[in-house]
C-alpha cells in the first residue's frame, strides 16, 4: 500500500483508488481461503469483547452514538454495542429507516428499550449541530463511544448545504463538527472513545486539493472519495494531538473495514452490477464491522490513540497522513469551512 502512495503522484486518482480496491478484494480472497471458518471465528471474538465490556461495567448507564447505524457496518456496530449493554443512538437522515433498524435489532437480540434514533444529515452543518442539541435533551450527562461510521462513496458531483463537495463534506466536515460538538460529553465519561471509519483509499492520494472542493472543476468520483478518507486520517492525528494537549480523557482511532458488501456503491449503477459477482470476495458487514467493535469494546485500549487499525491491528498510514504540516492544514481548512474549532468548545 505504501508503494501505491508513491504511485499516486504519477497516476490519476481514480485509477490508483481502483487498484487499491482490487488489492483489497485479492486480500479478502486470500483470507477466505486461509480461514474457511472466518464467520465462526468472527462471532467468537465478537462475543469475547461483548462479555469483557459487560463485566467491566460498574452499573452506571453507558451511552454510544453510531452515525449511519441503520444499515451495513453501522447496523452491526449498533447491534454489538446494544448486546454489550450500551444505550445506543442511531444518527441517520431518514428516521423511519433508523426505526426499522431498531426493530430488526430488537427482534434479533431480544433486547428492547436500549436504542433510539435522531435525525442527522451530515451534509448540513445546521443538522449536525441540531443533532448534538437533541442528544443533550435525552438527559445523559456523558457519552462513552462515538462511532463516525456514515459515509458516501463514488457519487455524482454534488455540494453540501454549505457548498462543499459532498463526499468530503459528509465523510469529513460533518463528522468533524459532530465530534467537536460532542467532546464535552465524551470527556465526562470515565474514558471516551471516538472511532472514525477510514479506508485504504487514503493511500491513493498524496495530498488534498482544497481548491477543488467547491465546484465541479477537476471532480473525480473515486478521487474525491480518497481525499475524504485521507482527511479522516489527518483528522484523527490532529485531534489526538489536541486531546493530549488539553489532557482530555478521550481517545480517537481510525478503523478500516476492508472491502465489504455494503450499500456504498448504490450511487453507481455499473459498480452496483459488478458488485454482484464481486460479493464472493467481499467481506460481510459483520466481518467489516469487527475493527470498529473492537475499538469500541475491547479492554486495554484506554491509552491507545491516534492510530489506524485494520483487522484489529495498528497499521502504517500513508506518509502524508503522518505529516504534521498536512494535519494542521486540514484542521485549519476545517475551521475555515465550518466555523467550528476545539478552542471554542466548553469542556
From TrEMBL:
The record's listing under SUPFAM superfamilies reads: NAD(P)-binding Rossmann-fold domains
Q: So which domain of life are we looking at?
A: Eukaryota
Q: Which UniProt keywords apply?
A: Oxidoreductase
A GO molecular function annotation here is:
oxidoreductase activity
Q: Name one Pfam family in it.
A: adh_short
**Gene3D superfamilies reported in the protein's UniProt record:** NAD(P)-binding Rossmann-like Domain
Q: What sections of the protein cross the membrane?
A: none
Protein name per its UniProtKB record: NAD(P)-binding protein
Which source organism does the UniProt entry give?
Linnemannia gamsii
Amino acid at each position: 500500500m505504501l508503494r501505491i502512495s508513491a504511485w499516486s503522484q504519477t497516476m490519476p486518482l481514480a485509477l490508483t483508488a481502483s487498484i487499491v480496491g482490487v488489492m483489497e478484494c485479492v486480500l479478502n480472497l486470500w483470507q477466505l481461503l486461509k480461514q474457511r471458518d472466518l464467520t465462526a471465528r468472527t462471532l467468537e471474538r465478537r462475543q469475547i469483547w461483548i462479555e469483557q465490556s459487560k463485566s467491566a461495567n460498574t452499573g452506571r448507564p453507558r451511552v454510544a452514538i453510531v452515525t449511519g447505524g441503520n444499515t451495513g457496518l453501522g447496523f452491526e456496530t449498533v447491534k454489538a454495542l446494544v448486546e454489550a449493554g450500551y444505550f445506543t443512538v442511531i444518527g441517520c437522515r431518514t428516521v423511519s429507516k433508523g426505526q426499522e433498524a431498531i426493530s430488526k435489532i430488537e427482534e434479533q437480540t431480544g433486547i428492547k428499550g436500549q436504542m433510539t434514533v435522531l435525525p442527522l444529515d451530515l451534509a448540513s452543518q445546521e443538522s449536525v449541530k441540531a443533532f448534538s442539541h437533541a442528544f443533550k435533551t435525552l438527559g445523559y450527562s456523558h457519552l462513552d463511544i462515538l462511532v463516525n461510521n456514515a459515509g458516501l462513496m463514488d457519487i455524482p458531483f454534488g455540494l453540501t448545504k454549505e457548498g462543499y463537495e459532498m463526499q468530503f463534506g459528509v465523510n469529513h466536515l460533518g463528522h468533524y463538527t459532530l465530534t467537536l460538538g460532542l467532546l464535552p460529553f465524551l470527556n465526562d465519561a470515565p474514558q471516551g472513545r471516538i472511532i472514525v471509519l477510514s479506508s485504504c483509499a487514503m493511500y491513493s492520494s498524496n495530498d488534498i486539493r482544497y481548491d477543488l472542493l467547491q465546484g465541479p472543476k477537476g471532480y473525480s468520483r473515486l478521487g474525491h472519495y480518497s481525499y475524504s478518507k485521507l482527511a479522516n486520517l489527518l483528522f484523527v492525528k490532529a485531534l489526538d494531538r489536541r486531546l493530549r494537549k488539553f489532557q482530555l480523557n478521550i481517545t480517537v482511532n481510525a478503523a478500516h473495514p476492508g472491502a465489504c458488501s455494503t450499500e456504498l456503491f448504490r450511487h453507481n449503477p455499473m459498480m452496483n452490477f459488478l458488485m454482484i459477482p464481486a460479493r464472493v470476495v467481499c467481506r460481510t458487514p459483520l466481518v467489516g464491522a469487527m475493527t470498529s467493535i473492537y475499538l469500541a469494546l475491547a479492554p486495554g485500549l484506554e491509552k491507545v490513540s491516534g492510530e489506524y487499525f485494520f483487522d484489529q491491528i495498528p497499521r502504517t498510514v500513508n506518509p502524508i497522513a503522518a505529516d504534521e504540516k498536512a494535519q494542521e492544514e486540514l484542521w485549519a481548512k476545517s475551521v475555515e469551512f465550518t466555523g467550528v474549532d476545539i478552542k471554542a468548545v466548553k469542556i
